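Thanks for the sequence, V.! I ran Urea amidolyase related protein right away. Repeating your input here for the record:
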Amino acid sequence: MRILPAGDTALLVELDTLAQATALLASLVADPIPGAGEPVPGARTLLVPFRPHAVSASGLAAALRSRPLVRPDDDVARVVDIPTVYDGEDLTSLAALLGWSPEELVRRHTAATWTVGFMGFAPGFSYLTCTDPAWPQVPRLGSPRTRVPAGAVALAGPYAGVYPRVSPGGWQLVGQTDAAIWDATRTPPVLWAPGDVVRFQPVPPDAVNATRRAPGAEPAPIVPGADATPDLDAGRAVLVVDAGRGTLIQDLGRTGVAHLGVGQSGAADPRSLRAANRAVGNPPGAAAIETEGLLRIRASGDVVVALTGALVTAHVRRDAAGGGVRERPAPSSVPFLLHDGEELALGEPTRGRRTYVAMRGGVDVPVTLGSRSTDTLGGVGPAPLTAGTVLPVGADVAAAVETGDVGAPDPASLPTPGQTTTLRIVVGPHPDWFDDGAATLTAQEWEVTALADRVGIRLAGRPLRRTAARADAELPSEGMVTGAVQVPPNGQPILFLPDHPVTGGYPPVAVVVTADLPLLGQLPTSARVRFARTDEPGA
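Predicted structure:
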């Protein structure tokens, strides 16, 4: 067992096999370590988050080393049968590549026993490992497809998998199934769990109804649309007149669902979300609007509103008697009243990137897996907001509105294009993949490119070089955290934001410390970033 730091609030446990990782996961689920969070299994690893005020990194490491790496004999695996039509686009070409006929590939695939190893990439997507030691390494496609249908049965590397929903992907497609791998309305929402045994059962083409494939395969809006009329008897609402850019519903995210392949998501700048909610008297995690600018909303009924986050010009407008428009500036970080029929209009941010619009009572959209957040990568939660969307305002109020300091960051302190922001990092878990460890990362300033969203920010600078021994190596998929500085083969780092995949296959060289994570959501294009090392937590 090798234990590595993954930031200041997580440890990465490296093991020899997937079976050991699964055994350690089972042990932690059955008997949690006080202070440890939900573990995230990988191909041969377990990512274990922790609360530093409850357990130290060294204390957690010692507790992990005491755990068994063999599952109990009485732990009987559940068997899941997957009816499969073998008509995939890559069946014939893959069989030829492996030196088999298509019939032989199907025979071997169905004769093998597969085990659910770990989940990642997308909600419910599981990496299934084969018990046949002669099963070949299957190459991924040279160019990934932009759209893989829900229910596609696929192969890549040593794994098999089933795409639970429509998504891009580079695995070889050999068949399809209508088994409901993922359904967010079901308990549990995923058909299988780590350690389950999976058998693929060949069935004729008419046995799979494509229209029934994978409920919830296409993420659908769960908020009223343009033709909806607010029920004023039930409360207040706001109408989205212009959704602007990058406008979503966010709260503090989902917890306890990483084992399902579902990320935490949540506000990209949680500090500003909490401050906006505090200003209007909401609980800190109430749902609010997150936007990158140019948003316009109209109140239906009187609504108390607060703005925090990016420095942005904001105005309240309403039609004036006799024609024309009356306009007044909207303040930042203090509550104000948006009267029935008035519009709030935001401009372009001049500092920072994201603004939070909290309404007293919170945005009252349905809860999915414990959160109202939109996960842009996983397709979980409300759809991105569009013009005409009606958002009900709830009654989730905790206290009176705040008129003093609500703890919002000073918008004037947020980064601008060309300005340098220093981010503190804990080096690890994989600096040994690079010639000079993390030295290249910390020795220069990096530019925030336009390739940035809630999944991650691509940085540009002098690339990190892999060691000769790792030049062509692939990292077995392992759990990832927000703030991870992941480095793909081109050496240009990617900073992970809240919608990052639960697992990833590029080595992280460092992780941004928890206290600096809110800054990631406020980095605009062309801003500069410098990384500064901190002491690594002892393990």
